[in-house]
Hints:
By secondary structure, this protein is an alpha/beta fold. It is built from 5 helices and 5 strands; from the N terminus they run E-H-E-H-E-H-E-H-E-H.
Amino acid sequence: MGIDDVARPQMKFEVVIVDDETAVSKMMSMTLEKNGFHVKTYTSAYDALQALKIQKPHLLISDIGLVGMNGFELYREAIKIHPDLQIIFSSGNIYELDSKGLTAGMQLTLDNFLQKPMSCQQLVERAEYFCKKSLLTDTHKN
Length: 142
């Protein structure tokens, strides 16, 4: 069974967004909620990590250039809590991909990256893809 074979469940996909730019996180949250996703937003990686200890989202969307703990560091900590957590990184600066260590031990591709500003369609399509992918893992199967 592939990702395209996974039907959208009756439940809403759970998405956590971490971005210190409130306008960006608000746009992403509103877009995803309009398309049937349940969204929680956080402005810091530390707050998101605390939330991940008590909830298991289908998808984490994180800005790379967060203050304190960057998006890659957040993801490394998040997968210690939820090893199969799906991720989308976002940034307005494509050069952050190399400078902050995307390739350092992470099995990710450019599919895991959305450049800001992104279109609403790109965001929804990518989020749906990775949420469906999460359904193929053991922890989200019914």
